[in-house]
């Protein structure tokens, strides 16, 4: 009995890891994406593991790719609040694993952006960070935004970075690992730290 069980498990494992099965799964993801996202560009690929909230508010450009555990959330309502969220991802954007992006306002990611793993980008908070927030538990506090997040073209974002509401990151910026970005920086900036600070300005 164990002999047959072993061979059945091995057969299933080989099927799941075969190129044919992966191509089939990718085709299913592509069909789903084109039907559910606001736009989904050609040659773009979703990871095997993902979670999306309201993909109808999310636009993805051409040649997008991501590793596993991609989480994109566009919240149009929360405990009676109403929002008009939008997430825009440009062309030739590459995410590593565990990227989490959440919007109630607008998050724009330009072309040729490269992200490492465990990155969090949000345009909102739970509550307004005031004493009145103590009247409700954190998960039930009203969502509030300090403005859109804009990440311009050719930005490289390191491992474990957190980008907070109202921030604009200029073209060609590099963000060091584990940085918390709570203010905007101009193009060609190298930034790092908690909170992130300007380390140097790149010059051609």
Automatic annotation (TrEMBL):
It is an enzyme of class 2 (transferase). Its EC number is 2.3.1.18. This is Galactoside O-acetyltransferase. The keyword Hydrolase does not apply. The keyword NADP does not apply. It holds the Pfam family Hexapep. Keywords: Acyltransferase, Transferase. GO terms for molecular function: galactoside O-acetyltransferase activity.
